[in-house]
């Protein structure tokens, strides 16, 4: 009984980790798309120079 529970626990952990990793890939892809859009849609500053769409 214990080996079966250990295998089920291992499958559950691996499934949870795989789901979390897949969600992180989708989040990273969304952030990348937002960054690229912001990069191409950035405006110019008041001084006429090239502006940054982020502040850091």
Structure characterization notes:
The chain is mostly helical and 56 residues long. It has a domain at 1-37. 70% of the residues lie in helices and 0% in strands. It has one helix spanning 2-40. The longest helix has 39 residues, at 2-40.
Which whole number gives the mean pLDDT? 77
Biggest pleated-sheet summary: none
For the record, give the distance between the C-alpha atoms at the N and C termini, rounded to a whole number.
56 Å
C-alpha Rg (nearest Å): 22 Å
Q: β content, as a range?
A: under 5%
Helix-strand category: mainly alpha
Shape: rod-shaped
Work out the helix count. Answer: 1
N to C succession of SSEs: H
Oligomer: single chain
Low-pLDDT residue spans: 44-48
Query: Could you tell me the number of beta strands?
Result: 0
Helix content: 55-70%
Organism: Streptomyces fimbriatus
Protein name: Hydrophobic protein
Briefly say what this structure is.
This is Hydrophobic protein. This protein has one helix spanning 2-40. The chain is mainly α and 56 residues long.
């Amino acid at each position: 009984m214990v080996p079966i529970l250990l295998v089920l626990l291992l499958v559950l952990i691996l499934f949870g980790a795989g789901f979390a990793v897949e969600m992180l890939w989708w989040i990273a892809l969304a952030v990348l798309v937002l960054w690229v859009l912001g990069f191409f849609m950035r405006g110019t500053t008041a001084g006429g120079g090239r502006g940054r769409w982020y502040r850091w």
